Amino acid sequence: MPAQNIDGVLLSQQLRGEIAQRAAKLTAAGRQPGLAVILVGEDPASHVYVRNKVKACGDVGFHSVLEKYDADLTEQALLDRIAALNADPSIHGILVQMPLPKHIDPSKVIEAIATSKDVDGYSVLSAGELVANLPGFRPCTPYGCMKLIETTGIDLRGKHAVVIGRSNTVGKPMALLLLQGNATVTICHSATPDLGYHTRQADVVVAAVGRRNTLTADMVKPGAVVIDVGMNRDDAGKLCGDVDYAGVREVASHITPVPGGVGPMTITMLLMNTVESAERVHSSSQNCPSQATGMEPKPGVA
Ligand SMILES: Nc1nc2c(c(=O)[nH]1)N[C@@H](CN(C=O)c1ccc(C(=O)N[C@@H](CCC(=O)O)C(=O)O)cc1)CN2
C-alpha cells in the first residue's frame, strides 16, 4: 500500500486556527501579537515569502510591520533598525529574511536581535537554549517537521531517526528536537560514506540537503516515516524535494510531499513562536508590570 501523505497545508490551517484564538485573547487583553519582517534586496523568492508572512499575520490577527530595503543598505543601518525594534513593546518577534546581500554579515544581524524576539530561533543563544532543553524559540522549519511527525502517531521513544544534513538552521536543530523526543538520532552529511546503510535502519528519515533524489526507495526501511525538507527544481523546472517521492511512497508508511509538506509549516511555526513570545511578555507583565517591555533584562536588574 502506498504511504499516507502528510499534508502540511491542512496541518497549517488547523494550527493557524489555534494561533488565531490565542492571538484574539491577547488582543482582548490589550497586547496584540506583533511581528516585524525585514527584507533587504531584490531576491524574488524572498519577496514572495515575506508577502506570505505578512498576509499570514493578518489572517491570524497579528499586527505586522514590513520593512523593505534596497540591496545597498549598510550593515550598520540594519543593526540600528533592529535595535529600534528590540525596544518597541508592540513588536514580539523580529524576522530578517535570509539570504542577505553579500556585504552584510548574517551572524552579526541575527545576534543583534533580542533573544526574547528571536522568533526564527536562529541566534546562538536560542540554539544554546535548545541544546539545554530550555524554553527558547525553536527554528521554524525543524519545529514544523516535528509537528508533521506528530500527526503520524509514531512514538519516537526508542525509535531510530536519521537526519540527512547538518546545517545550523535545519539539520542540527532537527537532530536535537528528535533527541528531545527520545529518539536515537544519527546525523548524516556530505562526508558520510554509505548513506543508505544508515537510512535503511531508520524509523524516521528527515532529508535536508538541498539535492534532489538524495533518498531513493532502496534506501528506506519499509514502514518508515519520511520528511522532505528539500526545495529543488527538476529538469523541467518543477519544484521537488530531496526525496524520490514516487519511489519512496511505495515503501514508507508516511511521507511529506514537495510542495505542500514542510514549506507551509515554516511560516505557521513562525506565527506559533510569535504568539508564544507575546504570551510570555503578557504573563511577565501580570507578574511584574514594570518589566513588560519584551526587552532583555539589563544585567543586575532582573
Ligand atoms: N529568516 C528566514 N529566512 C528564510 C527562512 C526562514 O525560516 N527564516 N526559510 C526559507 C524561506 N522560507 C521562509 O522564509 C520559506 C520557504 C518555502 C516555503 C513554502 O511554503 N514553500 C512551498 C512551495 C513554494 C513554491 O511554490 O515556490 C511548499 O514547500 O509547499 C515557505 C517559506 C529561506 N529563508
TrEMBL record:
Residue ranges of domain Tetrahydrofolate dehydrogenase/cyclohydrolase catalytic in the record: 6-120
Pfam families, alphabetized: THF_DHG_CYH, THF_DHG_CYH_C
CDD domains, A to Z: NAD_bind_m-THF_DH_Cyclohyd
Coiled-coil positions: none
Residue ranges, compositional bias (Polar residues): 283-293
Domain Tetrahydrofolate dehydrogenase/cyclohydrolase NAD(P)-binding: 139-280
Catalytic activity: (6R)-5,10-methylene-5,6,7,8-tetrahydrofolate + NADP(+) = (6R)-5,10-methenyltetrahydrofolate + NADPH; (6R)-5,10-methenyltetrahydrofolate + H2O = (6R)-10-formyltetrahydrofolate + H(+)
Keyword terms of this UniProt record: Amino-acid biosynthesis, Histidine biosynthesis, Hydrolase, Methionine biosynthesis, Multifunctional enzyme, NADP, One-carbon metabolism, Oxidoreductase, Purine biosynthesis
Pathway field: One-carbon metabolism; tetrahydrofolate interconversion
Summary of subunit composition and partner proteins: Homodimer.
Protein family: Belongs to the tetrahydrofolate dehydrogenase/cyclohydrolase family.
HAMAP family linked to this entry: THF_DHG_CYH
The protein's name: Bifunctional protein FolD
Source organism of this protein record: Massilia consociata
Encoding gene, per UniProt annotation: folD
